[in-house]
């Protein structure tokens, strides 16, 4: 049986004492101490590193040279801290680093946020992942350390997510986890342990400067696998974080990773990729929101007419462009705007009509991997969500009192899913420049909500609105069906006809 213990590494002890970590700013920017940069093209091996011994090589597998290129094979041996999750990607990344001749230590981060939902499982939600991670490490005699970061994750990711939803915005927990936990709290904790790099199974490619130009910035480039590319989730890292990272899968496709996993005989080679928000496990997102934010009844209004359509559980359960969960007949209906102050959600069936599509938005909390960022009015590509799809765009810099420096982004084509709080990442060809957060102040291209709808939203007592319009439509439809379904014999009977009409009209009045 696997025994899970806290790490005994000295630098991780502060994490176990749950000290207040970093500053609690809404968008925490980690400031790591500058250590000598280990350039990948240097011919002199680092003194602290030692190549794996023959006894520690475990089950050696011949790996093509090009597959270890992103694992810094020409720079071995390095001391590398490898983040493993029990999944196929991180396991193959570990094996590639090991095959390249590096001295690896594996780390499993326990970031399950709290035991709030412990009754949902018969066992710990991370137990199976950790068993797979241990089995992978055992095959090549790589030590595995378990680092408990639950409180840090709660304080710097989950609590921020809850606050953002309360404000009507839609945060991205994966971006925050990378910035604040995996390459934030963890990187800070092992800073003095002599590791040259931190590696993970992300699909992205980092290009570090040569020894002759060691002062230059490290670059983040797209993965070879454009479908799996994860540069969007890494786009808000700082330069001090990026220059410490290795991504061995940066020039490998997912199909190649699966093939390697089978070739290496990994115990988890058949595991499915994880889906959804990492800290929720088997808990539904709606259950998480209900538990930590609660419910507050509000109304659904049609954006174009102001008609009262129904009720909802709280605006924080909905995001712009959402279709699921509205439970309105005659759709499809989409969430198009939210009135956070009055707890009103505006919906429409015309979300995709040509005259209501967005092309312009603003981003703040800007983060660039170099000191300059894109030029004013420069033509770039951008992603407004994790997807292989790009938008062509032009960015214009502005200075505002409320948000400081912001970029106004003009897309070359329409996008219906722009949500305040999400990240927009910017690219120059294959190079990721950085990202910013989509602001909740839109230009004149935002979805038009009629004045009647806005006035109704401000009503303190919404009980005067009566029954939802959609319910009336259902009753009228029921009356029509009843009337049309009567056979000729029933129609010839005045009493039968009157009974059906009066019953339907009674439903409509109630």
From TrEMBL:
Family statement: Belongs to the MnmA/TRMU family.
GO biological process, alphabetically ordered: tRNA processing
Source organism superkingdom: Eukaryota
Protein name (Swiss-Prot/TrEMBL): tRNA-5-taurinomethyluridine 2-sulfurtransferase
This protein's UniProt keywords: ATP-binding, Disulfide bond, Nucleotide-binding, RNA-binding, Transferase, tRNA processing, tRNA-binding
Segments forming domain tRNA-specific 2-thiouridylase MnmA-like central: 287-349
tRNA-specific 2-thiouridylase MnmA-like C-terminal domain location: 359-438
């Amino acid at each position: 049986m696997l025994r899970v213990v806290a790490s005994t590494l000295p630098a991780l002890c502060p994490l176990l004492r749950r000290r207040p970590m970093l500053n609690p700013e809404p968008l925490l920017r980690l400031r790591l101490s500058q250590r000598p940069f280990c350039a990948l093209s240097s011919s002199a091996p680092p003194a602290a590193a030692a190549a794996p011994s023959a006894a520690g090589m475990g089950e050696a597998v011949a790996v093509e040279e090009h597959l270890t290129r992103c694992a810094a094979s020409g720079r071995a041996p390095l001391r590398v801290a490898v983040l493993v999750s029990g999944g196929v990607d991180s396991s193959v990344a570990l094996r590639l680093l090991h095959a390249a001749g590096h001295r690896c230590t594996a780390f499993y981060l326990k970031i399950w946020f709290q035991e709030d939902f412990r009754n949902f499982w018969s066992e710990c939600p991370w137990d199976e992942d950790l068993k797979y991670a241990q089995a992978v490490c055992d095959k090549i005699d790589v030590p595995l350390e378990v680092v408990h970061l639950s409180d840090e994750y709660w304080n710097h990711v989950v609590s921020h997510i809850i606050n953002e939803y309360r404000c009507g915005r839609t945060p991205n927990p994966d971006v925050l986890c990378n910035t604040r936990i995996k390459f934030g709290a963890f990187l800070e904790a092992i800073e003095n342990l002599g590791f040259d790099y931190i590696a993970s199974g992300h699909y992205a490619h980092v290009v570090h400067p040569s020894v002759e130009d060691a002062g230059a910035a490290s670059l983040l480039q797209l993965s070879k696998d454009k479908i799996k590319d994860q540069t969007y989730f890494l786009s808000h890292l700082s330069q001090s974080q990026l220059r410490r990272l290795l991504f061995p899968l940066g020039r490998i496709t997912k199909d190649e990773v699966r093939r390697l996993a089978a070739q290496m005989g990994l115990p988890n080679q058949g595991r499915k990729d994880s889906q959804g928000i990492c800290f929720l496990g088997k808990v539904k997102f709606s259950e998480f929101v209900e538990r930590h934010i609660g419910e507050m009844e509000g109304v659904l209004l049609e954006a174009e007419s102001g008609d009262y359509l129904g009720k909802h559980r709280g605006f924080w359960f909905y995001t712009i462009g959402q279709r699921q969960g509205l439970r309105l007949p005659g759709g499809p209906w989409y969430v198009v705007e939210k009135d956070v102050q009055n707890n009103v959600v505006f919906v429409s069936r015309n979300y995709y009509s040509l005259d209501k599509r967005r092309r312009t938005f603003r981003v703040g909390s800007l983060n660039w991997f170099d000191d300059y960022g894109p030029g004013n009015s420069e033509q770039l590509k951008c992603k407004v969500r994790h997807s292989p799809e790009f938008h062509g765009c032009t960015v214009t810099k502005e200075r505002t009192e409320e948000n400081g420096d912001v970029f106004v982004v003009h897309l070359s084509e329409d996008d219906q899913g722009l949500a305040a709080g999400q990240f927009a990442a910017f690219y120059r060809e294959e190079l990721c420049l950085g990202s910013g957060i989509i602001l909740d102040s839109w230009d004149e291209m935002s979805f038009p909500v009629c004045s009647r709808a806005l006035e109704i939203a401000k009503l303190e007592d919404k009980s005067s609105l009566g029954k939802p319009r959609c319910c009336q439509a259902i009753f009228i439809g029921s009356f029509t069906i009843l009337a049309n379904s009567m056979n000729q014999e029933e129609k010839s009977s005045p009493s039968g006809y009157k009974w059906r009409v009066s019953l339907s009209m009674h439903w409509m009045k109630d």
